[in-house]
Design a protein that fits this description.
70% of the residues lie in helices and 6% in strands. The chain has 4 helices and 3 strands, in the order αββααβα. α1 packs antiparallel against α2, α1 packs antiparallel against α4 and α2 runs parallel beside α4. 33% of the residues are buried.
């Protein structure tokens, strides 16, 4: 029964991360469709409400996917491995830290990309933060699923 639940949780995490990545890419496409005006010192663009909403929804889905990975494992997943020095626990800790780091980068990129569409902005260079954040969502899916698999595989052994 636990293996079936772990498979479902993994599928939900992947679906949420994948959907967040697709929405972020669509948000970038909506942002690219807005009118851009060349100014003396840079390029200005009008705000894109669709890109703003899609970026925030993508960030929310990424947050839900990340919490889905850690909630069943006692919020942070390190409770099972706090006293262990085995190789499996070490790999699990590394995947957990990497998952948190990738989540932080992706979440920040999605929020910055969404917030850049709240008002008219003029910059020397416009970065495609929503596309990069969306691609980072795909990386987050792979790392978080790897973490969740290692955590659930070792959990019954040490619980």
């Amino acid at each position: 029964m636990a293996k079936v639940a772990a498979i479902w949780v993994g599928m939900v995490m992947f679906a949420l991360d994948f959907t967040a990545g697709i929405l972020a890419i669509q948000a970038q496409a909506a942002e690219n469709k807005v009118k851009r005006v060349s100014a003396i010192f840079g390029r200005c663009k009008e705000p894109a409400y669709t890109a703003y909403v899609l970026g925030l929804v993508a960030a929310a889905l990424l947050l839900i996917a990340h919490l889905t990975a850690y909630w069943p494992l006692n919020c942070f997943g390190w409770i099972y491995y706090s006293e262990l020095d085995s190789i499996g626990a070490s790999i699990n800790r590394k995947l957990a830290v990497l998952s948190w780091m990738v989540f932080g980068v992706a979440f920040w990129l999605l929020l910055v990309g969404a917030m850049s569409n709240t008002k008219t902005s003029c910059w020397f260079i416009h970065f495609d933060t929503l596309v990069v954040g969306g691609n980072t969502c795909f990386i987050h899916a792979v790392i978080t699923i790897a973490y969740y698999v290692t955590a659930t595989a070792a959990a019954p052994e040490f619980a």
